[in-house]
Every structure is written in C-alpha cells, then in structure tokens.
Amino acid sequence: MRFQRPVILTAMIGAAFAQTNMPVIGSAGYSAGIPLTVAPGQIVTLFVPGFGDMLSGPAKAPPGPLPVTLAGVSVAFRQGADQAAPILEVQPIKTCTVFAPPGNTCGSTLAVTVQIPFNVEVICPRCARPIALVPSQVAVSLNGVQGQFVDLIVVPDQVHFLTACDLSVSGPQSGLSGLPCAPMVTHANGSLVTASNPGRSGEALSAYATGLGQTNPAQTTGQPAKTDSGTVTVFGIDFNYHPNSLATKPLGPTLDGLPTYPTPLFTGVSPGFAGLYQINFMVPAPPTGVQPCAAPGTSGPYANVVQSNLTVSVGSVFSFDGAGICIQAGN
Prior knowledge:
- The chain is mainly β.
- The longest helix is centred in the first third of the chain and has 11 residues.
- It contains one helix and 22 strands.
- Helices cover about 5% and strands about 30% of the residues.
- It is globular, with a radius of gyration of 20 Å.
- The strands form five sheets. A six-stranded antiparallel beta sheet has the order 2-1-4-10-9-5. Strands 3, 6, 7, 8, 11 and 12 form a six-stranded mixed beta sheet that branches. Strands 13, 14, 15, 19 and 20 form a five-stranded antiparallel beta sheet that branches.
C-alpha cells in the first residue's frame, strides 16, 4: 500500500526553493518527482517546500462546495487556459532531515490538498491522442504571489485507497484497528473492518478511495457528488490471501476493451463528498490455511505477526492500489 506523506526529497530541496521567494511545488501525492501524474477529479496534496511558516496552523474547507482560495492559498491548473482548482485543506508541516545544515535540522513545507479539475484532457493510448496535445501544469500561489508552474501528466485514473495516514481524509474517520495506517474499508453499517471486527466470506464491503477519474453522469469540480454515479473506467479487482501482502496489479482488459477479469460490485463517487470514491466488493471464500489477524495489543512493535490476511487490489491500465484487511479465517 502507498501512504500519502511528505517525502524526504521535499525536505532536502526545501531550502533551495525557499531562496527564490516564489512558491514551487516539490512533490505531490505519494511520491517525489516532476512531472506529477494526476487524474481528473483526483484529490492530491501538493507539497511546497520552505513556505509552511506562512501559516499559523491548518485550515480546512467548510462543508459544501470547495473554495478556490483558503487561508490565502490558491491553486491554478493550466491546460491551454487557466482554471482555479478547489482546495480541501492547507497546513504547515515540519520536515526534519539529517541532510539539513547543522543547527537547522527542520524545514517547513506547505501542504495543499486540492482537487484536479474533472474537465481536463487525458492521454489516450488507444485513440488519436496517445500524448497530451496541450501541456498540463499546476502552480500554487500564496497571498497573491504567483507560484511557478510545474508539469503534469494527466491520465484517466490514479487509484489510491484512503488510509488513516492520509493528510486529508474526506470520508469515514479511522478508529482503532491495530494497523499503523488502517485502510478505510467498512462494513455495511459503516464500522471499520479490523482484526477485532473482520470481514466475512460472502460479505459486501466498501473501500474508500481517490483518483478513479470521471463518472457517468459526469461530475462537477469542487461540488459534492449528488448521486452514486459509476466510473467511466472499468476496474479489475484481485484478492491475495497471503499475509501482509502489498497491492498487486489486476489483469487488464483485452485489446478490444472487454473485461476478462473480475470486477468490483461497484466503483463510483460517494454522495455528499467531493472527489471521494467508493469501491464495493464481495469477500470471496478464503482458501484453507488462512491465518487470523493478530488482535490489537497482543504484540509489540515490529513483531512479525499477521496484520492483514487479505489484500484487495483494484486497478486499470494506468494505475492500481490495494488495501490489506482482516477477514475471519475459516468462514
């Protein structure tokens, strides 16, 4: 599983960016590097090194339509013309590293969680636009100071299962689960799937995610979803019963685009939230010999125990991600 967090590279290059007095995005999402890869409607956190001290604390958007300016921060998405990207949250983050100069071991990074506009052109390897005809870029502005634009690659989807480690969780909140970064996977009653409250064979569970792309009917950027519209992309699903497994890429479609692999019960937006998706799936019968998850509090730090005994992965040609969960063994 991939966890959204400030990466070490952000702290290392923060001082250099801060010297320009211009906000420059150093990394985003779950990795470092430019250009950044995003999807229509994706919720992603942009990290701007050296500018965290401009805020006294975090600021979150109020319920309802997302604002395009929050605590003096705005984000511009450029693809031909500029358009404002809605903001969910801004917050300062201290980034400490052994690579910083002596006496200055901590930097300050501004984390800006935004929604990529839905009405953007994506690359399409199977059609007439295998590359983007119009370059895509994004920039963060602070208190009216225009930031430097950085390049983007816009693809149909960038699947990310939400976990308790995400900087901004727009859906159900995490409870005690025993996992260091509990995935947001719930039972039908909304309770979190945990070692003490595991999923069961034949039960329908819901995983919450971002980055699944456009839906039909189409979504409006910055607006909470009104209905549970399904995704345009048909996603595959994979179930791995090895303990503590990472995500695996499901088999893709055939050349004619027909799915030849298992698919979730439903992939689409979650009503009442902007940019939040829901993946519904049925827990298959576990094979013989599946070990139960260790109960919270029964083992010490770094103990080699079963933290998850089923990894559910969802993906397409462009991206995939997974969530390690606990299911009841032997049922």
